[in-house]
Amino acid sequence: MQAKPIFYNSPHFRNFWESGNGKELLEWAELTPDIRKFDRFSHLYYLVDEPGDAAVKETYLSMPYPEASRIIETATKQKIDKDSDLPPGVKNLFLQMQEIPEWFNQELANTGARFCMRSGVNSLIILRDFSLMGGYDYAYLNKPLIFTGILKKGAVKRLKDTLEFWIHVTRENGLQLNSEAYQLTARTRLMHSYARLQINKKRDSWDVEKWGEPINFWDMIATYTGFSLVLMQGLRKLGIVISPEEEKGVFHLWKYIGYLLGIPPEYLPENRQEAVEQLYLWSTVQDKGDEDSVQLAQALLDENLVNTINRFMFQRRLLLKLHQSMNWHLLDPEINERLQIPKVRTAAIFPQLIIKANKTVQRFYDLNDPAKYQKLVEKGHRDQMKVLSDYIKHTPARHH
Known about the structure:
This is DUF2236 domain-containing protein. Residues 133-345 form the ER-bound oxygenase mpaB/mpaB'/Rubber oxygenase catalytic domain. It is built from 22 helices and no strands. By secondary structure, the protein is mostly helical. The chain has one domain (11-47, 100-399). It starts with 10 loop residues before the first helix and ends in a 6-residue tail after the last helix.
């Protein structure tokens, strides 16, 4: 089966890349994409993490849940070798994850991690209102969320899970062997495989030709581009200055995270030119947002009203309006309208306040002063951990 760039000339594709946020990306990358490179990556639309699938088949699909969890917990919390007493597929998976590739540079990854931390709550706003919400406009990318019933589980849980993953993997030295972030990455990888195998039980309802394999490598690369390229694009919109070394570090960090999640590293972007090119080519197989997209967007907006972090309803309604104003500041108007995100009357006020605050903070801390830069990193880390703590505390116990 061969993927085809069927939406290359569609209005939604051309609008995004010729006048919307895609145009901004192309200008930032100083790139003129070449559609003739499509076949270099298109096979990834039908490739998946087979080692992860094998490990899930040997554990969660073959034995009681407590026993399977014990085996996986053992594999994530200690170094294993070829003689470890584990099922073959599980052993193979973790031997691969434990192998640190020659190209990995820990200090460069730490540079990316420090940037993620010093961006503070700004990154959490971008992840929610730009990366996550904007991703809902890719209709086919979201089909696994629909097939696995993510709407029924609630947006509070999904935000908690995304926050927990992103925050832990973006700490300095966070992905050391058997660390909490390493364990969380391994569980995420197995969750992807479990979801894929469950979806494949409904194979008659899954349109492989249009949607690719469930949670395929090309969709995964696009998703994690949202944590690197799109994150930095959004932060630039909020006045955050990014140095060339920080940018390089963010891409390197996410290349390693992608490697741990089973994506072939030779396809993971190392800079904004490669990332923009892949996003451009991948988006030619993605239809515009549909009814499922609108449901996902509405669930994310409604999360503001059902989350109990804010005690009073007037606080929750105010927070909803603030997030809607960020959606309209960050996303293309066409996407906001397609996802049916209501426009706030004073939509520009909150984003402009954030931009002014960020410029003031960056002047005060002086990004060129190592001591002041480190203080900003520490402050951003504390602010992010506080948000995560609130989400963990207020996520219903049945969802943990």
